[in-house]
């Protein structure tokens, strides 16, 4: 099945580690994302240590799935300049690529929002020892799924599609 259509947020994981090869493939997909002016501002902090994953719910209120996840990827960005306005879009594209690549390999994933919430940004900064120049954007929980979810409907909701102009 097309992994873009099959992707769902998975929050229950089996107690089985991910292979390094799987993590590398997911990061390669993230690195293949488009970015404004091809700045490629991303960095990824990859964590597979259970004690480190269990620290996340202490600063992120919607991250209890990290207690069973096999890995967390903190997607970060380092702005090239003060007016690097497209940083969030670049990092969102990388994050989505990571999720879709995970689905393609049968790996469950969940996107946890961080940026632009100041308390979550600070929590991630402390957790990953980020320099002040680096912005934490999202956490991704990864692991072998212990739940299955049906894909979202394939047919686009016609009320959301506008042809040529808003009035259609
Ligand atoms: C920016 C963003 C932030 C999100 N933050 C969280 C989060 O903190 N915790 C969580 O469990 N899911 C989080 N999600 C996942 C959404 O809840 C999920 O994508 C949505 O309910 C649709 O479900 P689906 O991913 O299965 O299609 C986030 C998703 C996005 C795009």
Automatic annotation (TrEMBL):
Residues 4-54, 63-144 form the Nitroreductase domain. The keyword Oxidoreductase applies. Pfam families: Nitroreductase. It comes from Aminomonas paucivorans DSM 12260. It comes from the Bacteria. Signal peptide: none annotated. This is Nitroreductase. The keyword Oxidoreductase applies. Keywords: Oxidoreductase. PANTHER family: NAD(P)H NITROREDUCTASE YDGI-RELATED, NADH DEHYDROGENASE_NAD(P)H NITROREDUCTASE XCC3605-RELATED. Belongs to the nitroreductase family. One of its GO terms (molecular function) is oxidoreductase activity. Residues 148-168 are annotated as: Disordered.
């Amino acid at each position: 099945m097309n992994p873009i259509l099959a992707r769902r947020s998975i929050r229950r994981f089996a107690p089985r580690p991910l292979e390094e090869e799987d993590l590398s493939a997911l990061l390669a997909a993230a690195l293949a994302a488009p970015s404004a002016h091809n700045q490629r501002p991303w960095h990824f902090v990859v964590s597979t240590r259970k004690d480190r994953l269990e620290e996340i719910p202490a600063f992120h209120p919607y991250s209890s799935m990290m207690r069973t996840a096999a890995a967390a990827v903190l997607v970060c960005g380092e702005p090239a300049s003060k007016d690097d306005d497209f940083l969030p879009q670049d990092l969102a594209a990388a994050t989505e690529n990571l999720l879709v690549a995970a689905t393609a390999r049968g790996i469950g994933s969940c996107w946890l929002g961080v940026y632009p919430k100041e308390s979550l940004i600070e929590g991630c900064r402390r957790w990953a020892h980020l320099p002040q120049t680096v912005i934490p954007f999202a956490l991704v929980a990864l692991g072998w799924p212990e739940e299955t979810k049906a894909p979202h409907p394939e047919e686009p909701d016609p009320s959301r599609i506008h042809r040529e102009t808003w009035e259609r």
